[in-house]
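for the recovery benchmark. tokens below, seq after
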């Protein structure tokens, strides 16, 4: 995808915006809309640890409140040897808000990356269809 390099760069840049007070584990994310607008996110932690929010959800929620509804891809960057995968909670939220065709770009500490479809990261998932009577 022509925008992958820029999206990866924005996710790496977003790591510096994190507030990982307790874990010191910096994560950055960048999501791109169908109109090629990019929104960044980073993890923000709470002293009540479970209230922490991940970088991916910060990015998509920021885009949503700006009125965005259609997304092509999200990049997630960490200072990790391996490509950083989104947690289970973020996979569910991305599935609900971005759809199962979303491309998820996993980025390691060297900026190397690989792309997976959300449907492959979260197979056989729950979703709004199950809520319909
Ligand atoms: N974290 C993310 O922001 N995204 C992920 O995909 C994995 C985990 C954050 C949450 C917490 O602030 C820290 O990393 C350690 O779990």
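predicted aa per position
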């Amino acid at each position: 995808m022509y925008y992958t390099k820029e999206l990866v760069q924005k996710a790496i840049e977003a790591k510096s915006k994190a507030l990982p007070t307790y874990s010191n584990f910096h994560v950055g994310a960048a999501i791109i809309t169908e109109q090629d607008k990019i929104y960044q996110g980073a993890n923000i932690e709470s002293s009540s640890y479970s209230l922490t929010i991940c970088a991916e959800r910060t990015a998509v929620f920021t885009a949503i409140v700006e009125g965005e509804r259609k997304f092509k891809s999200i990049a997630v960057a960490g200072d990790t040897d391996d490509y950083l995968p989104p947690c289970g909670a973020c996979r569910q939220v991305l599935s609900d808000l971005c759809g199962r065709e979303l491309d998820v770009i996993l980025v390691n500490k060297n900026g190397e990356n690989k792309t997976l479809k959300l449907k492959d990261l979260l197979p056989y998932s729950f979703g709004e269809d199950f809520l319909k009577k």
